[in-house]
């Protein structure tokens, strides 16, 4: 897996931090994790109801689930610069404020507010996504695998709970927009929970901003290309499924409530799956079995979704959920890459901004293909092809051959980000 140099970090290590600061950082990590996907899965579970109530057409219906990945690409690309100017903690606090404001804005029952709130909220989420590997590196330098596991487990837990709860909540409130808007309250709690961490960082006179390394030269390196490739493929598959899975099941014949349950089951399985894959992949010479397990399971789940009747939707839900567990494994690799926080942020920015930009094809393309053909057969078949490509890229990622970063120019010297089994 990814390894790091022994070069010192810019902040104190996990062991030398005051206990109160460590506890505050752990609490903040959990609260952030709960919000990293809740706003996306909550909207996905309500897409059918929102379209029926607000009355927007197929183009907007395809655009809305594509907004997160577009924002992740555009806003995420600025994260390396932003953290260099503000520091990691202040950048995350700003992003959480945008996330909470945008999600609350979606509670206003108009198409314009739904789109605008999604853009603002997902832009904040983009900065948070890219900054988290650097936050973990700074605050939990000796516990990157453990803390990456914690935040990804809470991420999938929050996504699962929201996917299951948002439909009955919306029914109780009498409006899908109102139900969607309540997710902003959870994001507000993350903003408030992260304030102590930011204040502690601000008062720590020994702390300096992380500096800035341009991420784009790293695309010329093997590590940069492989990380970007695997991140792109897993993101495309994940967001295509997160955006359309419940809607697919509903249009195939399941009720909205049953579709939400299947969606929740998929998310629920991804929680232990991520933990299992991190535990396996963190062991010497076990990265390859871990990525094979994740990618082959994802492929089997897509095939099951394509060929099995909708009455057996629990089978693809479980398989797909396990396949989604590759995300925390990729994040561990990113967190361990680079010799400094700035280098880690640069690799994270490269992989996530480029990956999410390309991954936008998934949710947007699926929506347009379904509208054009009136069937999910072609969109799912294309996902199956992409899943097969993911197996190949995962094989290269876990090949055991060093893939160090050694870019020239602004990123020179970032050659410590090696990857091997």
Question: Secondary-structure map with pairings?
Answer:
Layout: H1 19-35, H2 38-54, H3 58-63, H4 67-74, H5 79-86, H6 88-105, H7 111-139, H8 144-173, H9 176-181, H10 183-203, H11 222-252, H12 256-281, H13 287-307, H14 314-323, H15 326-335, H16 341-359, H17 361-373, H18 377-397
What key attributes describe this structure?
421 residues; 18 helices; 0% strand; disordered N terminus
Write structural notes for this entry.
This protein is mainly alpha-helical. The protein has one domain: Up-down Bundle (Growth Hormone, Chain: A), CATH 1.20.1250. It has 18 helices and no strands. The longest helix has 31 residues, at 222-252. The protein is globular and about 55 Å long.
Strand content: under 5%
- Counted up, domains total 1
Radius of gyration: 20 Å
Shape, principal axes of CA atoms: globular
Largest sheet report:
none
What's the tally of helices? 18
At the fourth CATH level, what is the homologous superfamily? MFS general substrate transporter like domains
If classified by CATH, what would the architecture be?
Up-down Bundle
Work out the helicity level: over 70%
Number of distinct beta strands: 0
* CATH fold assignment: Growth Hormone, Chain: A
Q: What separation lies between the terminal Cα atoms?
A: 5 Å
Mind telling me the CATH class?
Mainly Alpha
Query: Can you tell me the residue ranges where pLDDT is under 50 for at least 5 consecutive residues?
Result: 1-15, 205-210, 401-421
Q: What series of H and E elements makes up the topology?
A: HHHHHHHHHHHHHHHHHH
Compute the average pLDDT: 81
Structural class: mainly alpha
